[in-house]
Amino acid sequence: MFSTDRLILRQFEESDLDDMLRMRNQAEVRRVLSYGYLVPSSPSFEQTMRQWVDNALIFLIITLRESGEYLGDCRLDMETSKNRNGRLAISLLQEHQGKGYGEEALRFLIDHAFKQLALHRISLEVFQPNVKAIKLYRKLGFVEEGRVRDGLWMDGGWQDIIAMGILDREWKQQ
């Protein structure tokens, strides 16, 4: 278990599955996370969520320090161990977005990844319409590394998928 000013970042527990499913069934959350069609996730989606937990280098449940309330989750997957390249993902319940919780959780996870796990780089993908996330990633030091042009059909039109990354030396300079 880890803590920040306002958050507890802890390991996954079976009881988190309901909250994880509820979050991923929120239309606005699902819209910016899913490459597929926007259809509600079913309990069978639990198997996919368990695979995320089992296969992640680190998977953290994000909760409020004061109340223990579930806010979301974040994970770091190891893309290539030889090259020490991690892949970052975060999801927050819609009602907790825009309050700085995502930034606080990511600052901890990125710092932990570079200082404790000795990663060299961290990458992520974000959909072009997710302007708030792109702004946050840039604030954290991520730079755009490429785009999949018109790679996603969303809201009746084609959108780009943006690849972003940060290196350990860039994080250290901040």
Automatic annotation (TrEMBL):
Gene3D superfamilies linked to this entry: 3.40.630.30
Q: Which residues form a coiled coil?
A: none
Q: Which superkingdom?
A: Eukaryota
UniProt xrefs under CDD domains: NAT_SF
- Give start-end of the signal peptide: none
UniProt domain N-acetyltransferase: residue ranges? 7-165
Name a Pfam family for this protein: Acetyltransf_3
Fetch the PANTHER family from UniProt: GNAT-FAMILY ACETYLTRANSFERASE, SPERMIDINE N(1)-ACETYLTRANSFERASE
The identity of this protein, by name, is N-acetyltransferase domain-containing protein
Originating organism: Somion occarium
